[in-house]
Design brief:
By secondary structure, this protein is of the alpha+beta class. 45% of the residues lie in helices and 18% in strands. It is flat, with a radius of gyration of 26 Å.
Length: 235
């Protein structure tokens, strides 16, 4: 009976995690706020009690998930609609560098030291404060940086009028298997892929992976060590 209780708890826990994390939206770990972390901690506590406390029944766990999910929905919806409430609950962005000058008050309010600010800048590829025009500490803890125009990399449009735009790359073959979802996204078929592979002298069973780009065509890597560096070809 105890094993059945654990199994039920794990199943409902998994279901609850999937449903509640949907409320949080599609976020990376670096985008998770302190409030999101609290959501997850409480959720983990509910699952833990359901697994290790035999007296907690199936319906009790469902009720706890329902109440906690409803609370999250209310908080997140209110935060989206009311700016003041969002600031109170999730905090606000802090401008740490403005017009090339470090905002000391904002830095101290954010509980940061100058060394920590420099670390955050280095994570963005900036190794000197003098390169920074504007820097904002986001509520997630990430630092958004705007460099001075003279410190930004040169772009093609600065010198060229006509140039091809970038195109996404799709993984069509992975360890001998065809990725049909990506193949469908580019509007191609399995027969087209096999014919293109044959043109380049490749067989599906010999490919470790094959990428395809509308601009550059294919990039192959086979299981053969001699061809481990791959080979481009342009359509």
């Amino acid at each position: 009976m105890l094993y059945l209780s654990i199994l039920k708890g794990m199943f409902v826990g998994l279901l609850g995690v999937v449903v509640i994390t949907r409320f949080l939206g599609k976020k990376q770990l670096s985008q998770v706020t302190t409030l999101d972390f609290v959501y997850i901690l409480v959720l983990g506590g509910i699952v833990q009690q359901a697994i290790y406390e035999p007296h907690i029944r199936f319906q009790h766990m469902l009720f706890a998930f329902f109440v906690w999910g409803g609370f999250i929905w209310i908080v997140e919806t209110s935060a989206q609609r009311f700016d003041r409430f969002r600031t109170i609950i999730k905090g606000a962005n802090s401008v740490l560098v403005h017009d090339g000058k470090v905002n000391v008050k904002a830095l101290e309010k954010s509980k940061l030291e100058m060394g920590q600010l420099r670390t955050l800048l280095r994570e963005q590829g900036v190794f000197s404060v003098k390169e920074v025009k504007h820097a904002v500490l986001e509520t997630s803890g990430m630092l958004s940086v705007m460099k001075y125009a003279g410190k930004e990399p040169v772009m093609k449009e600065d010198f060229l009028v006509n140039y091809p735009d970038n195109e996404p790359t799709y993984l069509l073959v992975e360890e001998k298997d065809i990725n049909y979802r990506n193949l469908k996204q580019i509007g191609k078929t399995k027969d087209w892929l096999l014919k293109e592979l044959e043109k380049e002298g490749h067989k599906l069973e010999n490919l470790y992976f094959a990428e395809w780009n509308k601009l550059n065509g294919f990039y192959f890597q086979t299981y053969d060590e001699k061809e481990s560096e791959g080979a481009f070809y342009t359509k």
